[in-house]
Amino acid sequence: MKALLVAALWAAAAMAAHAADSVTLTGSIGSRAILIVNGAPPKTVAVGETFQGVKLVSLQADQAVVESAGKRFSLRMDSPVSIGRGGIAGSGGNRIVLQADSRGHYMTQGQINGRAVTFMLDTGATTIALSAVDAQRIGLDYSKGQLVQMRTANGNAAGYRLRLQSVRVGDVEVYDIDAIVSQQPMPFVLLGNSFLNRFSMRRDADEMILEKRY
């Protein structure tokens, strides 16, 4: 039993290590797609084959479906797709694809000012919102921000408005973003409209697709 557990942990670690951050469909040759994964040179991949942790599931005209780390993502020709790991890829992407979890929430790893956080997409939040605990952990001196009053489910609460230097999801990065730091505990950083307004958004089944506008 112990050996099986160790093997499973190694398999999970290997999958995480090989999961891609950015995938671009640049063309096709017959039934083979031409993919760029994490900025590597283009590679022709047949349906069912895997390259750098990305498996080509299907290919049709200028669209493809790929799978990485157990999740599937839709690609369109020449549109880089960040698959939401918030890893080490470059910051030149313009498209984010998020998968809904079992509760219908869109969660993703990302970065604020280069420090790792866990985001939950929230179209009802005016700005990015994070707890004071998270702000301290990533080195934000929110005490220099503007003191504001926030309406919460538990009544009014004090918060601090400030500007974030950068916010990143996968290989998509935006700059100079409004945020609110709350004194109340929060399990996730809310990815609100100060970030989302930089994108056009559409939902396709269980995917939320964000296309960068500026």
TrEMBL record:
State the species of origin: Variovorax boronicumulans
Q: Does the keyword Signal apply?
A: yes
Q: Which domain of life is it from?
A: Bacteria
Leader sequence segment: 1-19
Q: Which Pfam families match?
A: gag-asp_proteas
The entry lists its GO molecular-function terms as:
aspartic-type endopeptidase activity
Q: What is this protein called?
A: Aspartyl protease family protein
Q: Which GO terms describe its biological process?
A: proteolysis
Which keywords accompany this UniProt record? Hydrolase, Protease, Signal
Q: Give yes or no: UniProt keyword Signal.
A: yes
